[in-house]
Amino acid sequence: MTKKSLIVKEHQKKILCQKYADQRNKLRHILNDAKVSSQDKLKAQFEMQKLPIKSSPTRAHNRCQITGRPKAFLRRFGLSRLEFREQALKGYIPGIKKASW
Both 18 and 56 in a single domain? Predict the structure, then answer.
């Protein structure tokens, strides 16, 4: 089981990411636009650097909702592979059953 502090930090990163997403997208659009002058691009780059570091979407990490495990995460279910297997065997995930052939 992961420490609660790590789970809370990841949750805060996701909230920050959502908060600054529009502003970050506008600045990124300016930086990638060929018609914009180099001075405007430089200003946009400085503005991008002023944003909080933890608001970058690449810093957020997916974690299991139950255990907080960061590795072997299944996005579709929001669980780690270990917890997914346990939940599926107990019958808590509808439509999932153990394969046998």
Answer: yes
